[in-house]
């Protein structure tokens, strides 16, 4: 009786291990943490085949998972950062300086997003049209909960934070070299 | 030893099946949710300019930088004609398949005259057809073919200044989406 009982008892374990491993590996690849479907450029990550006819199944899965519709790289390239340039996780109670050269595009937008909410409140994004840009196409944006001089990116009150940099109608150099184009650094400053 | 190997293989096979099912089917479900949310409240083949709350509820994404308009395409009974009236601003059109793939893109730099029309039609499913070719539907500047019987048409117009939002919305509201007439 005992070996038979052990065989039955192994079935729930088999289901948990199989389903858990399947879901965990799928979510890791969809997140871009594993595999070559996402491309990293400093702290920024993008999905080069988004919105293209040759979209791979993991990129296809990435956007709906966050309730978003992918735009083609011809129209927009979206970079997402969940850590600063030193590799530390983003904390909305800290101030961050997003500074450096920005890849050529018709216009760009930097947004502070809470992962659990698609809503972007006023002030939680900086647009190229209204931003102060240095002559060499360098930018300096201060992300903080408190008002800051210059380009201020208001941080949400929630505990999760990610930055999104979207290049609309980007130059061809962006479309062909997602990992090499100049993008600003994210430097952590004081925390409250 | 054999038993252990059996269980390891069984777990690996189950994990592979779950992995593939998740990757292949979940995006379809999510896209169906978006299209069902839009068509339940506003119907199909109807152009709708979304306010900020609707953009969040239907598209799951909201941006104060855009005014967004959509049309849920039902191509089962024939082609659909979308006539767009867009303001002199940066805008882009994306047509998504039922799976969420972006099958067509267009922006303001590719269109010289506004308003303009886009016809979306369903490709013939059969490899061989002995029927006489259909008379082309209404004339349109752009023609898009898709293998799906449904899809989503999305237009995003950039709002340079919040003061322009109402004006852009009013212009975009003049756009239409309807079944195309086949003569």
Largest sheet of chain A: 6 strands, antiparallel
**Helix content estimate of chain A:** 10-25%
Biggest chain-to-chain interface with counts: A-B, 48 and 44 residues
What is the CATH architecture assignment of chain B? Sandwich
Radius of gyration of chain A equals 20 Å
Number of domains of chain B: 1
What structural category arises from helix and sheet content of chain B?
A: alpha+beta
For the record, what CATH class of one domain in chain A applies?
Mainly Beta
CATH superfamily of chain B: Domain of unknown function DUF1254
Strands of the biggest beta sheet of chain B: in what spatial order?
1-2-8-4-5
Q: Structural class of the helix and strand makeup of chain A? A: alpha+beta
Oligomer: heterodimer
Characterize the largest beta sheet of chain B: strand count, sense, and whether it forms a barrel: 5 strands, antiparallel
* Count of individual beta strands of chain B: 9
Mean pLDDT of chain B: 84
Mean pLDDT of chain A: 86
- Tell me what the CATH architecture of one domain in chain A is: Sandwich
CATH topology title of one domain in chain A: Jelly Rolls
Cα distance, first to last residue of chain B?
72 Å
Outline the fold blueprint.
The complex is a heterodimer of chains A (192) and B (183).
Chain A: H1 2-31, E1 39-41, E2 44-46, H2 57-65, E3 76-81, E4 94-101, E5 105-113, E6 125-127, E7 138-144, E8 151-154, E9 162-170, H3 172-176, E10 185-191
Parallel strand pairs in A: 7-8
Antiparallel strand pairs in A: 1-2, 2-3, 3-9, 4-7, 4-10, 5-6, 5-9
Helix pairs in contact in A: 1-2
Chain B: H1 2-42, E1 48-50, H2 52-59, E2 66-74, E3 80-84, E4 91-97, E5 102-107, E6 116-122, E7 142-146, E8 150-158, H3 165-172, E9 176-179
